[in-house]
Amino acid sequence: MIYFYHHFLDLCCGSGDLAFLLSERVGSDGKVIGFDFSRKQLSVASLRQHLLSKACYKNIEWIEGDAIELPFSDCSFDAITMGYGLRNVFDRCKAMQEMFRVLKPGQGYPSLISIKALNHLLHQLRYC
After folding, report:
1. Is the pTM value of this prediction over 0.70?
2. Domains, the chain, ranges and CATH?
3. Sign of CA dihedral 41, 91, 5, 110
4. What is the mean pLDDT of each run of 10 residues along the chain (128 residues)?
Protein backbone atom coordinates (compact mmCIF):
# COMPACT_ATOMS: atom_id res chain seq x y z
CA MET A 1 0.00 0.00 0.00
CA ILE A 2 1.31 3.39 -0.99
CA TYR A 3 1.15 5.04 2.43
CA PHE A 4 3.82 2.77 3.94
CA TYR A 5 6.43 4.46 1.79
CA HIS A 6 8.38 7.37 3.23
CA HIS A 7 10.31 8.98 0.38
CA PHE A 8 8.31 10.03 -2.68
CA LEU A 9 9.22 11.68 -5.95
CA ASP A 10 6.36 13.40 -7.75
CA LEU A 11 7.61 13.97 -11.30
CA CYS A 12 6.06 16.64 -13.49
CA CYS A 13 4.34 17.81 -10.32
CA GLY A 14 2.90 20.99 -11.77
CA SER A 15 1.16 23.00 -9.07
CA GLY A 16 1.61 20.17 -6.56
CA ASP A 17 -1.76 18.43 -6.22
CA LEU A 18 -0.30 14.91 -5.90
CA ALA A 19 2.63 16.12 -3.80
CA PHE A 20 0.21 17.60 -1.25
CA LEU A 21 -1.78 14.35 -1.06
CA LEU A 22 1.41 12.32 -0.68
CA SER A 23 2.63 14.66 2.02
CA GLU A 24 -0.51 14.03 4.05
CA ARG A 25 0.07 10.26 3.73
CA VAL A 26 3.73 10.15 4.73
CA GLY A 27 3.39 12.71 7.51
CA SER A 28 6.24 14.52 9.20
CA ASP A 29 8.51 11.45 9.13
CA GLY A 30 8.40 11.26 5.34
CA LYS A 31 9.73 13.35 2.47
CA VAL A 32 8.13 14.38 -0.81
CA ILE A 33 10.04 15.90 -3.71
CA GLY A 34 7.91 17.83 -6.20
CA PHE A 35 9.89 17.93 -9.44
CA ASP A 36 8.98 19.90 -12.56
CA PHE A 37 10.67 21.68 -15.47
CA SER A 38 8.40 24.73 -15.10
CA ARG A 39 9.62 27.35 -12.65
CA LYS A 40 6.21 29.02 -12.88
CA GLN A 41 4.36 25.85 -11.83
CA LEU A 42 6.80 25.31 -8.96
CA SER A 43 6.22 28.89 -7.81
CA VAL A 44 2.48 28.22 -7.74
CA ALA A 45 3.08 24.99 -5.78
CA SER A 46 5.33 26.76 -3.29
CA LEU A 47 2.81 29.56 -2.81
CA ARG A 48 0.05 27.02 -2.22
CA GLN A 49 2.29 25.24 0.30
CA HIS A 50 2.68 28.44 2.30
CA LEU A 51 -0.96 29.50 2.00
CA LEU A 52 -2.31 26.10 3.06
CA SER A 53 0.31 25.90 5.83
CA LYS A 54 -0.48 22.40 7.06
CA ALA A 55 2.26 21.04 9.29
CA CYS A 56 2.73 17.98 7.08
CA TYR A 57 3.40 20.17 4.03
CA LYS A 58 6.77 21.13 5.53
CA ASN A 59 8.07 17.79 4.24
CA ILE A 60 7.72 18.89 0.59
CA GLU A 61 10.67 20.21 -1.36
CA TRP A 62 10.20 21.72 -4.84
CA ILE A 63 12.97 21.14 -7.41
CA GLU A 64 13.20 22.42 -10.97
CA GLY A 65 14.65 20.05 -13.53
CA ASP A 66 14.23 17.73 -16.49
CA ALA A 67 12.65 14.27 -16.11
CA ILE A 68 15.21 12.78 -18.49
CA GLU A 69 18.13 13.87 -16.28
CA LEU A 70 17.10 13.37 -12.67
CA PRO A 71 19.61 14.84 -10.20
CA PHE A 72 19.18 12.05 -7.65
CA SER A 73 21.28 9.05 -6.64
CA ASP A 74 20.34 5.54 -7.70
CA CYS A 75 17.69 3.83 -5.55
CA SER A 76 16.70 7.06 -3.77
CA PHE A 77 12.89 6.78 -3.66
CA ASP A 78 10.32 4.37 -2.26
CA ALA A 79 7.80 5.40 -4.90
CA ILE A 80 7.43 7.73 -7.84
CA THR A 81 4.25 9.37 -9.03
CA MET A 82 3.76 11.15 -12.30
CA GLY A 83 0.23 12.41 -12.87
CA TYR A 84 -0.29 12.88 -16.58
CA GLY A 85 3.24 14.16 -17.13
CA LEU A 86 4.71 11.29 -19.11
CA ARG A 87 2.69 12.26 -22.15
CA ASN A 88 4.52 15.62 -22.15
CA VAL A 89 8.05 14.25 -21.86
CA PHE A 90 9.98 14.39 -25.14
CA ASP A 91 12.09 11.26 -24.58
CA ARG A 92 9.77 8.86 -22.74
CA CYS A 93 12.24 5.98 -22.86
CA LYS A 94 14.96 8.02 -21.17
CA ALA A 95 12.48 9.35 -18.61
CA MET A 96 11.39 5.80 -17.73
CA GLN A 97 15.01 4.68 -17.45
CA GLU A 98 15.68 7.57 -15.09
CA MET A 99 12.61 6.76 -13.00
CA PHE A 100 13.64 3.15 -12.57
CA ARG A 101 17.22 4.21 -11.81
CA VAL A 102 16.18 6.39 -8.85
CA LEU A 103 13.44 4.01 -7.66
CA LYS A 104 14.38 1.50 -4.97
CA PRO A 105 14.26 -2.10 -6.23
CA GLY A 106 10.85 -3.72 -6.03
CA GLN A 107 8.98 -0.45 -5.54
CA GLY A 108 6.15 1.09 -7.51
CA TYR A 109 5.38 3.70 -10.13
CA PRO A 110 1.79 4.94 -9.90
CA SER A 111 0.72 7.06 -12.87
CA LEU A 112 -2.52 8.64 -13.99
CA ILE A 113 -2.63 7.61 -17.60
CA SER A 114 -5.44 6.28 -19.76
CA ILE A 115 -5.42 2.64 -20.88
CA LYS A 116 -5.16 3.73 -24.52
CA ALA A 117 -2.16 5.95 -23.71
CA LEU A 118 -0.63 3.20 -21.56
CA ASN A 119 -0.87 0.65 -24.38
CA HIS A 120 0.77 3.14 -26.76
CA LEU A 121 3.52 3.85 -24.21
CA LEU A 122 4.21 0.17 -23.59
CA HIS A 123 4.46 -0.39 -27.32
CA GLN A 124 7.02 2.44 -27.54
CA LEU A 125 9.00 1.14 -24.57
CA ARG A 126 9.47 -2.23 -26.26
CA TYR A 127 11.88 -0.42 -28.59
CA CYS A 128 13.90 1.44 -25.93
Report:
1. yes
2. 2-125 (3.40.50.150)
3. positive
4. 71 93 87 96 96 89 96 92 80 86 74 49 54
